[in-house]
């Protein structure tokens, strides 16, 4: 199925008329005065997009596309502001060419050409960035390097439970190739269907596990990276104390230091035993405390996501006073009933009321399953509401348990104040996507009735307010969404200056021409 150039996923996967009607009905109940007029995407061929300003060398020409829709689809990521700008036909920055190499050797050739020509090069995996990470937001020509044809599992080490994988593979295809071996990566970000291994590595993505193996970092054994100065191949080891880790230099580098072409990944046997439960709370503070105790218990639930009352109602269809905890355990080796049993003891000690089976669930359905289903459809729902002048976007962070109460109050207050100053009516929700012994990763949603033509500016106002609030309250500017271009002002304030100097030195050494994803991480 063809990808949608303007929004999330595919045109075939978007909400159908029935889903859209039900969604609009639910939101209209909350915002009865909002104008839900639909604004469909424009025909990209009718936008008068500029012709490419560069031509590839003859040897690379077969790999290159200058099709307007192809270029428009690679011009930005999938954030709310990206989708709305596409819907309004505002595409001031486009890659001049989209290049699709089929081998690492061709990646080297493309990089050599761009270095010689002084052409900015933006590595591109699945294009699911929500922070401006793949947008050529600068004047002058540029080239987007789409790694989607480097999509194979090259080697499996069954004894070590590892695999060597090309960076362009998308999540579903990776799992399909591992399944015959009885193995799985078990890394399922919300973008799983349309994001790539290379993108996960370059942005330090967070995945399926709410505890323990939370980031792709934890699942990475070794990296292979093409830089303008040569190829970096780290050693495969279960662990090493030999100085700073070379992999840590490239994990999270967002295409600024080199192009990740392969990785050795630590895999899991496919789980045989699973247990899930949903727990309702009458008080949000006690729900947070229960989640903290679980995170510090050593039980390591695979799922431990706390939804506040707003999030539970909007996306799980459950009315609770304090919160809804979606809890899960899994194992390939042993039953998990005992761990689930102890977890349920903990939540009961903090005022939680578990419902485990479908017959116990409120309103005729298992809340955890309903939330999971909605979770996978959320980006499509966001697009449908964006077409109808809604401001619908998320932001996320991480902080210590000691700081959470103050951060949560400051961030929600900042969001509501910004909406009020804009004259908008809306809601702010919160869920924990990941939890650690020392703190949670809160993930916030904003849902407001905007004004068509102004919704990007309206969101930018809210985003600035909440970013200032969360960084002032001890939170990170991002837990797993990356820095990109949008988070640069706050990232500069978060990182220590000596580290910033070291990062700039690494950039100057590895990419002396400064062509790799300009404007990200190092300015």
Explained architecture:
Helix 3 (80-87) packs antiparallel against helix 13, helix 8 packs antiparallel against helix 10 and helix 12 runs antiparallel to helix 13. The two termini are 37 Å apart. Helix content is 33%, strand content 20%. The protein is globular and about 65 Å long. The strands form five sheets. Strands 5-6-10-8-9 form a five-stranded antiparallel β-sheet. A four-stranded mixed β-sheet has the order 1-2-4-3, covered by helices on one side. The protein is of the alpha+beta class and 523 residues long. The protein has helices at residues 17-30, 68-73, 80-87, 104-117, 171-178, 197-203, 246-250, 284-295, 309-316, 337-349, 367-386, 401-421, 455-472, 488-494, 497-510, and strands spanning 64-65, 97-99, 121-124, 143-146, 153-157, 162-166, 183-184, 220-227, 230-233, 259-266, 268-269, 273-281, 303-308, 323-331, 353-355, 390-396, 426-436, 439-449.
């Amino acid at each position: 199925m063809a990808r949608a150039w303007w929004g999330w996923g595919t045109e075939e996967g978007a909400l159908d008329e029935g889903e859209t009607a039900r969604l609009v009905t639910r939101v209209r109940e909350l915002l009865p005065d909002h104008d839900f007029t639909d604004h469909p995407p424009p025909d990209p061929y009718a936008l008068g997009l500029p012709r490419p300003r560069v031509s590839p060398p003859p040897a690379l020409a077969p790999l290159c596309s200058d099709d307007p829709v192809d270029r428009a689809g690679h011009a930005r990521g999938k954030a709310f502001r990206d989708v709305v700008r596409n819907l309004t036909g505002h595409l001031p920055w486009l890659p001049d060419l989209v290049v699709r190499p089929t081998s690492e050797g061709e990646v080297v050739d493309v990089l050599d050409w761009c270095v010689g020509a002084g052409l900015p090069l933006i590595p591109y995996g699945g294009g699911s960035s929500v922070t401006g990470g793949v947008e050529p937001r600068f004047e002058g020509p540029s080239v987007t390097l789409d790694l989607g044809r480097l999509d194979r599992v090259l080697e499996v080490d069954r004894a070590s439970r590892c695999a060597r994988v090309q960076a362009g593979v998308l999540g579903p295809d990776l799992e399909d190739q591992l399944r015959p071996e009885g193995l799985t990566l078990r890394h399922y970000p919300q973008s799983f269907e349309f994001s790539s291994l290379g993108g996960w590595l370059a942005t330090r993505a967070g995945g399926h596990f709410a505890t323990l193996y939370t980031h792709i970092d934890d699942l990475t054994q070794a990296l292979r990276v093409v830089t303008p100065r040569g190829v970096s191949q780290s050693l495969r080891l279960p662990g090493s104390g030999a100085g700073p880790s070379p992999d840590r230099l490239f994990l999270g580098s967002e295409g600024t230091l080199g192009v990740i072409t392969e990785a050795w990944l630590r895999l899991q046997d496919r789980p045989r035993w699973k247990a899930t439960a949903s727990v309702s709370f009458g008080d949000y503070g006690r729900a947070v405390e229960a989640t903290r105790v679980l995170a510090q218990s050593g039980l390591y639930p695979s799922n431990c996501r706390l939804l506040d009352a707003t999030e539970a109602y909007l996306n799980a269809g459950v009315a609770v006073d304090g919160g809804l905890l979606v809890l899960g355990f899994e194992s390939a080796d042993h039953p998990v009933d005992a761990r689930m049993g102890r977890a349920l003891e903990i939540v009961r000690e903090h005022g939680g009321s578990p419902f485990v089976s479908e017959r116990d669930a409120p309103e005729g359905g298992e809340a955890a399953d309903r939330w999971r289903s909605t979770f996978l459809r959320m980006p499509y729902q966001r697009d449908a509401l964006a077409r109808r002048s809604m401001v619908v976007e998320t932001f996320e962070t991480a902080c210590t348990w000691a700081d959470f109460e103050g951060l949560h109050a400051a961030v929600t207050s900042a969001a509501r104040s910004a909406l009020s100053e804009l004259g908008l009516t809306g809601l702010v929700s919160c869920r924990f996507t990941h939890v650690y012994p020392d703190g949670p990763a809160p993930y916030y949603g904003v849902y407001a009735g905007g004004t068509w033509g102004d919704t990007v500016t309206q969101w930018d106002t809210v985003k600035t307010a909440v970013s200032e609030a969360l960084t002032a309250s001890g939170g990170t500017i991002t837990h797993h969404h990356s820095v990109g271009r949008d988070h640069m002002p706050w990232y500069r304030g978060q990182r220590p200056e000596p580290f910033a100097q070291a990062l700039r030195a690494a950039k100057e050494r590895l990419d002396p021409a400064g062509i790799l994803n300009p404007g990200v991480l190092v300015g």
